Amino acid sequence: MKIDVVLSAGMKAKHDFSGQIVVVIDVLRATSTILTALTNGCLEVIPVQKVADALALAERVGRDQFLLGGERKGIPIPGFDLGNSPLEYTRERVEGKKVILCTTNGTKALNETKGAAEVIIGSFLNITRVASYLKETEKDITLFCSGQDGGLAIEDLLCAGQIIKKLLFITKNATIPELTDAGRVALITYKHLANKNKGPIIAMAQSGHGQYLASIGFNDDLLHCSQVDALPNLAEYKNGSVVLK
Ligand code: MLT
Hints:
Oligomer: single chain
Bound molecules: D-malate
Largest sheet: 5 strands, parallel
């Protein structure tokens, strides 16, 4: 088993996902939001990249059939029903509903996974569940950090690093996974910044996007998204939508 890490959406030209399990990670906040929505009874989340595509899809399938959710610069998109704060995706709001979600980096990454054998939703909220699932595979794994506008987002790298740490631990008596350099960087970053009792919250609060979200009033999202194993569900992106597996 080989484990690679992609540092940001927009770098896919350098990667071939064919035959691999890809775990898409956007801790702040898209994959945390998707997992929260599905855990609260949302039937499916359809990730799209562009606002115009989200609106066109909603028109085509019937505007009353879907909730429209998403953000630009972290702020809810005008005319949409929901933003991208996971705390908005309550059971009262999403149970039995379908969501079209349009975010800057997370839904972009999901749309860049073409060719992968399987695509799994990764976050701190379900991290042990994801690692346990990956442990069973014979396939190569790519941990696809959504990043921030084509660059690195440290909270995504921390999550990738913790998944790797868990995989190395779980599989320690079996075949030792082979790590790429990016995988090693993720592991070292995790060990340095979030291992032991500290968890990811301090590093997340110091991250560029964490500070930005706090500055526009979403500090509680950081607390929610940093909860390790709070929502231990597995979600899969398949045929254009994300559902619980
Ligand atoms: C994204 O997809 O870029 C993020 O989820 C942005 C956000 O924090 O809403």
